[in-house]
Amino acid sequence: MLSQDVKTAQKWAERLHQGQVDKSGKPYIGHPARVAGRLHSPEAQVVGWLHDTVEDTGLALSDIEKEFGPETAEAVDAISRRAGEDWDAYLLRVKKNPIARQVKISDLIDNSNLSRLENVTLGDVERQAKYNRALAFLLTD
Questions:
Q1: 27 φ, ψ to 5°?
Q2: Which of 22, 51, 55, 73 could disulfide-link 65, Cβ–Cβ 3.0 to 4.6 Å?
């Protein structure tokens, strides 16, 4: 059974990502649903649903903190990449937050799945290799 927080996060994600599509042209909400669905704790599932909201919808961290608490806001902040931020510095920041780390691993697994794309390009393969290197980094201590 889903906790109330997970249900609320799902509703927020559905509302905030409404009308967005992924690289295959499908509704974007499938991505956070798959990310959250791989996670086991309610805390991580909430962050899984919300992990792209700050970057992609302009939702403020203060709104997340108000609704879900500081631990959730800190994890969403840790997984939200900042403009101009170096990829390796970003991954190091993600790795320091245990919930963000779990969510980013699930996110990378989903983003690395090229079978959801109708036409795979060289850019997609290169992105997959980048994500696989990031996964290896996040999976080691």
A1: -55, 130
A2: 73
Question: Which CATH number characterizes residue 46's domain?
Answer: 1.10.3210.10
Mean pLDDT rounded to a whole number for the chain: 94
CA atoms of 28 and 24, how far apart (whole Å): 9
DSSP secondary structure string for all residues of 44-105: HHHHHHHTTHHHHH---HHHHHHHH-HHHHHHHHHHSPPTT--HHHHHHHHHTSHHHHHHHH
By the 8 A CB rule, do 96 and 78 touch? Answer: yes
Q: Which long-range contacts (CB under 8 A, 24 or more apart) does 122-127 make?
A: 124/23
Which residue's entry shows tokens 């109708």?
Answer: 118
pTM of the entire structure?
Answer: 0.93
**CA-closest candidate to residue 44, choices 29, 32, 54:** 32
Q: What pLDDT score does 126 carry?
A: 96
Catalytic annotation, residues: 55-56
- Specify the number of domains making up the chain: 1
3-state secondary structure of 136: helix
Average pLDDT value for residue range 101-110: 97
